[in-house]
């Protein structure tokens, strides 16, 4: 069992749910991202998703689209993101998960990327636009290097498909809470608890819910029935609104502490 599986076991033993924050690497630059991730970890994050910027992030709403644009303008590359992970891994115990799009990862080559990710301490990879049937070589390459390929399910996923995803995913299953793109929402999507219950009837894999979560109240509600909550756009909004790295780190740290308190 890797860092992700161990972390969920530890949390279950303590009766806690996982807080999984997301930040875009290189927004506004890689040194600031490193400071933000360190602050997020210290404030209580259990796992941390690091977004790899891409020019056409189809699953993202305006907030994370803009963050990718800022990161690409600052010169952020996949190798730069891997260097960021290497720096963070020397300082952090939390599992680090890369989230991105197939073109970026596959351009390096399946096996080359998996080897490079293993070398720097990546624990999991979420590839938003690569289904397991089309990404078999990529996912197998990750598993060979003991990196968890994390798959996604959604409200439109059939029972048969859900069973296949729950069997093939590693670390946890990422449940997309709504039929739409990322972005903070005022209310949780309807039917979330039943959706997670469907997965529970099929598998005991940890389930984390993401897309649209933006407040401690929403995160706490998700924590009643899921193993973890993913918060991205609300954090990226804080980073974008800050006038300098110092205020960004301070506001993000305070927000993370409130979110984690809701999951204890």
CATH class: Alpha Beta
**Record field, number of beta strands:** 9
**What share of the residues does DSSP label as strand, in percent?**
5-15%
Low-confidence stretches: none
Topology order in helix (H) and strand (E) letters? HEHEHHEHHEHEEHEHEHEHH
Q: Give the overall form.
A: globular
The CATH superfamily title: Aldolase class I
CATH architecture: Alpha-Beta Barrel
| Helix count, DSSP H or I runs of 4 or more residues | 12
Please compute the radius of gyration using only Cα atoms.
17 Å
Distance between the termini: 24 Å
Give the overall average pLDDT: 94
Largest sheet: 9 strands, parallel
Describe the strand arrangement of the main beta sheet, using strand numbers: 5-4-3-2-1-9-8-7-6
CATH topology: TIM Barrel
How would you describe this protein?
This protein is of the alpha/beta class and 264 residues long. It has a single domain (3-9, 17-261), classed as TIM Barrel (Alpha-Beta Barrel). It is 49% helix and 14% strand. A nine-stranded parallel sheet has the order 5-4-3-2-1-9-8-7-6. Helix 10 packs parallel to helix 12. The longest helix has 17 residues, at 245-261. The protein is globular, with a radius of gyration of 17 Å. The model has no long low-confidence stretch (mean pLDDT 94).
